[in-house]
Amino acid sequence: MPQAPNGYARPSVDQVEEPGTTTGTTPSTVADTPVPARRPPAGSAPDRPAVSTRRDAFFDNAKFLAIVLVAVAHAWEPVMAGSRATKALYLLVYAFHMPAFIVISGYFSRRFTAAPGQLRRLLTTIVVPYVVFEVAYSLFKRYADDSPGHPISLLDPWYLTWFLAALFIWRLTTPLWLTLRHPLAVALVVAALASLTPSIGEDLGLQRVLQFAPYFVVGLCLRPEHFQLVRRREVRLLALPVLAGAAAFAYWAATHMRTAWLYHDNSAQELDSPGWVGPVMTFALFGCSLLLTAAFLSWVPGRRTWFTALGAGTICGYLLHGFVIKGAVYAGLFDDHAWPTTPLGRVVVTVAAAVAVTALCTAPVRRLLRPVTEPEMKWAFRRTG
User: What average pLDDT is seen over the chain?
Assistant: First the structure.
C-alpha cells in the first residue's frame, strides 16, 4: 500500500466504514476510528459527512497486540504438552484474543448498510482473500504434510480461514442485527442453541459463526465512549487482579477443562458432554471473555508507539503466520527435537512467533500481498452513480 509520510496513504482494507463511504474492514478487523473533521464554511453545500481518515492509534495498537497473541498461542499448541504453566497461558490467551478481534470488528461494522460500494469492498477484501487462502492452505496441507487426500473445499474452512467466512456472514447480517430491539440477547440465545445442536455441521464453520456471533453484536452495540471508559486509570488498576485471577483459574483449568470449549466449533455432545452443558458454557465463556477483553483493552496504549503502524498490516500477519507455524510442525521441528519442549525452548518459540508475525505485518509484506488482500477488481463490477 502506498506510504505517506505518516505511514498511511489511503484507506486500507483495515479501515473503518464511515457514513457515506464505501470502505470495508477485513479479518485484520478494522483500524480506524472516526476523527471529527473541521466543519465546512457556512453556506456551503453539505454533500456528505466530513470525516477524517486519520487513524486512531489505540485500535491499531490493539490489533497488533492481539495478532501477536494469536500467533504466540498457535505456536504454543505443539509445545504445551507436559507443561501446565504453558497450557494455562494458552487457555488464558485463547479466552480473549479472538473475542477482542471480533468485538472490534463489530464496532467498525456499525455503518454497514449493504450499499453497492460496501458490498464491493466486502467481496474484494473478504471473499477474495478467503478463496485464495483457503486454496493455498489446503494445498500446503496436502503437499507439505504429505496428505494427498486433504480436500480443497470452499465450504469447509481449514485452520485460519474460518474467520474470513465468519466475518463475511456477520457483516452481511449487520443490518438485521441493528433492527432488533435486543440484538445481544438474540445472539446469545442463538449461540446457546448452536452449542447443543451437533447437526449444524462444518459448512462455512457455522458453529463458530453462531457461537462467536455475540461478540460481534457486542461490537455493534458499542460507542466511542465505551472505549474511553475502559481506558480509564481505575479500570486499568481493576484489570490487574482480574488478569491475575484469570491466570490462577487457567492454571487450575489446565488439568480439568478441555481446550476445545474455547474454539467454539463443536457442540456439547461432540465434546462428550450432556447437551445442557453447551448453553452453560456459552454464557460462562461469554462473560469471562468479555471481562478479559476489557482488561486487555484497558492496557492497550492510546498513543503512537513503534508498533502502531504495524496495526494496518494485521491482515497479512493473520493470514501468513499459519504457514510459518504449520511449516515448522510439518518439518518435524517439534517432533524431531526435544529442545522446543524445554522451558527455554518454549521461551524461544514464543519470541520467534512474536518476531515472525511482527515481520509479516510490515509495509513491504502488505504491498506484496495487496493484489490478494485488497484487489480493486474494477472489471468485475458495474459502475454506479
Answer: 87
